[in-house]
Every structure is written in C-alpha cells, then in structure tokens.
From TrEMBL, chains A, B:
Pfam families: FLAD1_M, MoCF_biosynth. InterPro entries: CinA, FLAD1_M, MoaB/Mog-like_dom_sf, MoaB/Mog_dom. This is Molybdopterin binding motif protein. It comes from the Bacteria.
C-alpha cells in the first residue's frame, strides 16, 4: 500500500567518459525519469562522472545519503574501464565477490571460451543479487534492494528496468498536462505564478519554442492528483487567455 | 600561450525539472563537451538538479571547488521558476543587481511593454558581465571570468558558446580516433588493456553495438598528441587483428 504522503526519490549516476567527451548522447536519463514516474518515484538528481573509481564512489555515497534509491548506468561490461562494481563495493566498504548464478550463466553462454575478461561480468559487491533482464538476458546488479547497477547501452538498460517494473515501493505517480499558447514567456509570467500560488502542490514549467517566425510556449502542469490537475489546467487556461495568449490545442 | 602540462577542467550544472521529469532530453551536455574539447578543456563532471535554490547553490559550490570553469544551463528566463541568478549569487555570497547594459537592451527591445517579469532577465550576481550572443542576441552571464550562466534552449546556449569561443585559457585539445571491428568486447579486453598500459596518457574506450545480427565494437582512442595517437591506433589495430577481430574501416 503506497504511503501517499511520502515523496519517493531516486538519484542516477551516469558513468562514462563517452558521455563527458560528447561522443555519446546520454539517453538513459530521460528513459529512467519516465520509468520512475510510472513507479511513483521522482528522479531528483543526476551526476555524470568519468570512469574513475574515486569519482564514482563519491557520487554513489552522495546519492545514498540523499535519495531512497540509487541507479547507475555504464561500466559493468568486461573491459578494463568497466569499474562500476569495484567503485560501488568500495563506497559500501564491501569486497567484490563472484556471483555463482552469474558465473553459471556465463559458463552456459560462453562454454570453453569463458575467459578472465568475461568472468569480470560475474563480479558483484558482496551481498548483491542479479536483476533479471527479460529483454536481452544480460542481468544487472541489485544491492540491498535500493541500488541498481545497470548497463550503459540503452537497449540493455531498458531491459533491466523492464524486469524491475512494479517491484519498488513508491508513491503516487505524477500526472501532467501540457497547454500550448502563442505567447512569449514574459507576457504571462505573472499568470503562471498566480496559478501556482493558488494551487499548492502544483508545479508549472514553461518551455518556449519558435516556429514559423512566431514565438510560442508550452506550459507543463504537474500534480499528484487528477482532480487537482484538471482544476489547475482550467485556471491556467483562463489566466493565459486573460493575458492575451492565443491557445494551441494540446500544446506543441 | 597554453600550458601544455595542465589539464583544464570544466563542470556543467544542468538546471531544470523538465530534464529530471524526462519530458526534455538534455542536448547541452554533448554540445558543450565537444565545444570545450576544441578549447582544450575537459568536461569533467555534470550535475542535473531541479529548480531549487539550495540544490543549485550546492552544486555550484561543489563545481567551483572541483573545476577551473563552471557552466550552467537553464533557469535564466523571465518566469518564477527561473532562479539560477539568485542561486548563483547565493552560492557566491553576493547580492543580485540589475545590469545597466542588460536593462538598456531590454528597454530597446520591449519599449513600453517592459514589465517586471521581463526586467528579471537583466538581473545578475553583483560584478557579473554579459556574455554576448552573436546568434540570437540574448546574452548569457559571465561571473569572474570562470562561471558562465547560459540558457537552457539549445539554440540559444549554442549562440552564447559561439560568442565565447577562443576566449578561455585551455590546454591542448584532445584528439581521438575510432577503430571499429566485428568482435565482442570480451574477446579483446586484454588487448585493450595492454595497449593502454604501453601508451601512458592514452585512453581507450570500447562501445559495443549490434547490427544485422552481429556484434561489433567501436574503440575510441584519445590522446593529446597526434603522433602518440597514431602510434596507439597502429598498436591497437595490430592487437585487435591478433585477437581475431575483423576490422571495419574507420569504425561505425
């Protein structure tokens, strides 16, 4: 039974020089954020750190202190720069051990070709479990039921999250609605603030865009209750019209 | 004259609930990373934080302690959730003031329609300068020559960076080369490690992909010297062939 009053939070640590060099565009943050939202958990912070033991361990410990859940992406493969398991074990003050079930899986998959590099993928922080992955088969690593070490490759990350769906304690999912209007932000800033003050617990974000030489804005209203959301949307629509903004159906 | 021995670093703070909710995919990290690389500066860490004063200020102070330069994106517009200027001023222990040049720009642009919300965009931490933006005209905010507060909308962020090109002290740009091969990571992990050990200062990242039912891998070699890079690339190609990997010209 979810406790409706508690806001459950998660932090994400994105591990990888390829993101910080600009070579790869991180896609896991947005995906995890939406997945968490369905589970009733708020993604409350993200750190992107290089493939360095000390940096990863520090970020892990900061996130453990700050959030209910900690997710990591990247650095759990077989190569020398895959050091997430070691860094997390270090942060937790635990040894790294070979997980027997993971070793069996690798043994079945590789047979005689199971080498030392491949065996690296069976290493976990002591006490950890595997996260089943119904999509690609490659498991992630779950520690203490609150930390989740996942792959960096989005397709595999998404499989690991699919296997975790419905298993975490969370609160009420956030519901949102987008209202678009042809207007600059500056013309309606007061209206946004007024509606937000009238409706405690409701957040309104404004995201400008330019199209066909005109300026428009999408206003995203977020709440934890459908009725509250609907009322806030109605108030905002009215306030926008009063401020002279021309509505666009459903936003852009 | 760049000091070739010093590695110049930057941190980025991405500010915005829209990124953490998964609604918007951050595009500024990858762009800034590549821009910094040309300037001879390494993007060494990124934090994504919500639109909260305390969280932004804490991230700013962490980044100031850790890196040579600090960049922020988001939260410098006219609406109530645009609090980056206030949070940075708070982190620096300085008041927020109206920048006379910015006020003049807004006055010319809006004329009689200059309202309180629009005037918010002329507010800066005391002592700050404007960052000219040759692309869209909207200036960013430069503090002490080391902190750069930029817009969240990528087109505008990129304009602000264009205006800053060539103005920061940096070291040697990182050069890189990608070698692709049809092979799994696990088959060549030892080869990668060996080449990295043979060539101090060279980093090799491996990024697997799946195509047409085959597994391949791109190996990205990074160095600060063309000759060192070329030698490392040659060694890696040889090591990959010895490990039985089938080369793909120029990577995928």
């Amino acid at each position: 039974m979810p406790r409706a009053d508690k806001i459950w939070t998660a932090g994400l640590i994105v591990i990888g020089d390829e993101i910080l060099s600009g070579r790869t565009q991180d896609a896991n943050t947005a995906y995890l954020a939406k997945w968490l939202n369905v589970e009733g958990i708020v993604l409350a912070g993200v750190e992107i750190v290089p493939d360095e033991m000390g940096r990863i361990a520090a970020a892990v410990n900061r996130a453990r202190d700050a959030y209910d859940y900690v997710f990591t992406t990247g650095g759990i493969g077989p190569t020398h720069d895959d050091i997430t398991v070691d860094a997390v074990a270090d942060a937790l003050g635990r040894p790294v051990v070979v997980h027997p079930e993971a070793r069996d899986m690798l043994q079945r998959y590789y047979g005689d070709a199971l080498n030392e590099a491949r065996l690296r993928m069976a290493r976990v922080p002591e006490g950890a479990e595997l996260m089943p992955n119904p999509v690609s088969g490659a498991p992630g690593i779950k520690v203490d039921g609150t930390m989740f070490l996942m792959a960096g490759v989005p397709k595999i990350t998404q499989g690991m999250l699919a296997g975790l769906s419905g298993q975490l304690e969370g609160g009420r999912p956030v519901v949102d609605r987008t209202i678009g209007a042809w207007t600059g932000e500056t013309a309606v800033a007061d209206a946004l603030l007024r509606v937000e003050r009238e409706k405690p617990g409701v957040q309104i974000g404004s995201y400008p865009f330019w199209r066909d030489g005109r300026v428009g804005c999408n206003f995203v209203i977020r709440a934890r209750d459908e009725a509250v959301l609907a009322d806030a949307a109605q108030r905002l629509s009215r306030a926008l019209r009063e401020a002279g903004a021309e509505p666009i159906n459903g936003g852009i």
